[in-house]
Design goal:
Blueprint: E1 2-7, E2 14-16, E3 22-32, E4 39-49, E5 62-67, E6 70-75, H1 83-98, E7 104-109, E8 114-119, E9 124-127, E10 146-148, E11 155-158, E12 171-175, E13 178-179, E14 181-183, E15 186-188, E16 190-194, E17 203-207, E18 214-216, E19 220-229, E20 250-258
Antiparallel strand pairs: 1-20, 2-3, 3-19, 4-17, 4-18, 4-20, 5-6, 5-9, 7-8, 8-11, 9-10, 12-16, 12-19, 13-18, 14-15
Length: 269
């Protein structure tokens, strides 16, 4: 059995993608497998920092509102946000601009995954259809238009749709020299599916209880590429802000083993 420890730390004989999700390792000594034998790969463990953004620059990173005749726009950095993170930035912004912390609040309804938009002063208008609004991600579609509370406060409106802050349900780990899996109806080289089960910016520690055996397609392995993608097969951003920052770290342990041969015994009675 051959063990390979691969991570996305910069180093010699490695090529790392701008998003930090893909690593190609050029082996100093190629792995040469016997042409007359079958081999399989298994992923035994993975450690991945959960940092895939759910707020993206020039996509859904703004919240626009009007208060006391002033039009304001809160701009969020690209990143992985919880409701608490969003509320914290709203409170800082409204404290600085209006002198009122928590002018607007977002409260989750955990039973329905919807969001309460709470107004803590009178005559606030929130613009759901504004450019790059974060509100559709929180369940308030752009078609909602403007939401105002008039003279009553505290007041609230509940979102039409469920919030969609969980950017991914699964992290798929792929390898370029294997085959044998399917993603829906399409053949795939996915060797493991890792479910984010930790808080943002914590490390997912995945240990395969029953690791999948994938057929190896190459007999002379000079390089190996490991790639992390989302549920739809798209490259995930490991906290690089579209390639401008150093990625958060991940690592995997994979093994290459020869298939066990079944011994058949014939008995004459």
């Amino acid at each position: 059995m051959i063990s390979l420890y691969i991570n996305n730390l910069a180093g010699q004989n490695k090529v790392i993608s701008p998003l930090g999700n893909s690593v190609t390792v050029n082996l100093n000594t190629p792995i040469v497998l016997d042409d007359h034998k079958n081999y399989h790969m298994r992923l035994l463990q993975a450690n991945i920092v959960y940092c895939t953004p759910n707020v993206f620059q020039n996509v859904n990173n703004q919240l626009s509102y009007t208060f006391n005749g002033n039009n304001r726009t809160i701009v969020f950095n690209q990143g992985l946000f919880t409701i608490d993170d969003i509320n914290r930035q709203i409170a800082i912004f409204t404290s600085e601009t209006e002198g009122i912390p928590s002018l607007i609040e977002l409260l989750p309804d955990t039973s329905t995954s919807k969001i309460y938009l709470v107004f803590n002063r009178a005559n606030i208008t929130v613009h759901c259809g504004a450019t790059y609004s974060i509100l559709p991600t929180l369940g308030f579609p752009a078609s909602t238009g403007d939401i105002s509370n008039g003279s009553s406060y505290p007041d609230y409106v509940i979102s039409t749709n469920q919030a969609n802050l969980n950017s991914i349900q699964n992290i798929y780990i792929k390898c370029d020299i294997v085959t044998g899996s399917y993603q829906n109806a399409q053949t795939s080289n996915i060797i493991a599916s890792v479910i984010p089960n930790v808080l943002p910016y914590s490390t997912i520690q995945y240990v395969a209880q029953y690791p999948t055996r994938m057929n190896i397609t190459s007999r002379n392995i000079g390089y190996i590429t490991i790639t992390l993608v989302d549920d739809s097969g798209k490259d995930i951003d490991l906290g690089t802000n579209n390639g401008t920052l150093s990625p958060e770290l991940w690592s995997v342990l994979i093994t290459i083993s020869q298939d066990e041969l079944m011994t058949h015994r014939t008995m004459n009675v």
